[in-house]
Amino acid sequence: MGDPREPPGGTPEGGSNDDEFRSVVFDESFVRAARIQELSAQERLAGALGRATRPRGWGWLSVPRQAIVLLLVVAMAFAAAVYFGISSPRGETAPPSGTQLTVSLTPLAPPGAVTAAADRADPFAGLPAGYADGQAGFGMPAATATAHFTGSQVQRALDSVQQYLVVSELTPATLTANQTAQVRALITAGELSQYDDSTNSPRDDQHHAATGWMVRFDPGRIALATDTVRTTGSVHVGELNADTLEVTTDHTLVYALRPAGTTSDPSVTLYAVRRAVRIDVDRADLDTGRLRVVDAAVQAGPSSCSAGQSDYLQPVLATTAGVRASVPPAVTPADHGRPAWQSCGVLGPITG
Asked: Which keywords appear in this protein's UniProt record, sorted alphabetically (predicted)?
């Protein structure tokens, strides 16, 4: 009797029972796992006649694992890009980190009685030479290239600075009408929260005085005798670093003021404000036309030393009888109950 392991017809000529497939054991579990499923009659009639069987399970299991991982990474990256594109605020760059505006305010008390301008029709007639009307006195420099910025980029920065100076120091709506939107439109996105806090709830803490961002007077008490403001000063441009221009402005502004409302007293008071402001403009600010106000040092008089200056500047107005403001109080260095930055000075002559 033949060997049961041999094929019925015997071993093929030239063949061997010890071929490479002999080690493969086709047990029952292997056969069950490898079974195929025939197509139904309906599937065959539908046009699948060229294929007698269909594979069981999902076809994507045969895709290489590396390809599946790559597809997942691409899908996650796309989803992240869509999310951040939707959630990012439109029209504003991400708020830059770092500095915030620091303000110092020094009221200047008059050395004697406050007297009115001699000529109400031309209140600035007594000013010395060197003052000009409005932005003509800003002393804007020519735009020249720096180490990391082109001349046109410097010009764009200077244009933004000049616009800020106009709306924060010369515009009547800002000076005596409580308008703050024009200044806000020029402030970089990272400072808007501080700016809004300063205008909505001003306080003398060196960071949240509305009068650090702009010159303004209480419209219930102060009016402009003329919309003209006399100015003198200078503007300088440098680089803070390779990505930021640093612009420093130092101006003296003289305002002609009178009491608000109807009054029988026609007196006009000249009020002087010196503002030394440091402004940073980075590359993102150049694209948006905005700027960062970093430091503002303000001296203003004639003012009362005892009046708060964080919300409005507080001029002492002249009357026909003359008004004497309070003299600066003595400063005691050992008094730690008074903030060190709060000080008052004596107003000297307004010179060019």
From this structure: Membrane, Transmembrane, Transmembrane helix
Q: Phi first, then psi: give them for residue 188, nearest 5 degrees.
A: -60, 155
For the four alpha carbons of 28, 31, 32 and 38, in that order, the dihedral sign comes to negative
Count CA atoms within 13 Å of residue 204 on its CB side: 19
Residues in the chain: 352
Among all chains, which residue has been given the structure tokens 């306080």? 203
Give Cβ neighbours of residue 180 (< 8 Å, ≥ 6 apart). 174, 199, 210, 214
Return all residues near 226 (Cβ < 8 A) that are at least 6 apart: 123, 256
Instruction: Report the greatest alpha carbon distance in the chain.
Output: 145
Place of tokens 């009307």: 133
Peptide bond into 302 cis (omega under 30): yes
User: Residue 16's CB: how many other CB atoms inside 10 A?
Assistant: 8
For residue 62, the model assigns a pLDDT of 55
**What is the amino acid identity at position 352?**
G
In the numeric block, the tokens 């708020």 are attached to 95
The whole-number pLDDT of residue 92 equals 40
Q: How far apart are CA 23 and CA 182, in angstroms?
A: 88
What is d(CA 129, CA 229) in angstroms, rounded to the nearest whole number?
15
Domain boundaries, the chain: 36-87, 102-332+339-346
pTM of the model: 0.71
Please write the tens of the pLDDT for every residue from 301-317.
Answer: 999 888 899 999 999 99
Residue pair 198/209 in contact (Cβ under 8 Å)? The answer is yes
- Which residue is associated with the tokens 């290489």? 64
CA-CA distance, 342 to 206, in Å (whole number)?
A: 9
pLDDT of 130-159, one tens digit each? Answer: 999 999 999 999 999 999 999 999 999 999
SS3 state at 149: coil
Q: Which of 287, 272, 321, 284 is nearest to 106 (CA)?
A: 272
Q: How far is Cα 164 from Cα 296, in angstroms, rounded to an integer?
A: 13
3-class DSSP state of 163: helix
Alpha carbons 252 and 302: distance in angstroms, whole number: 14
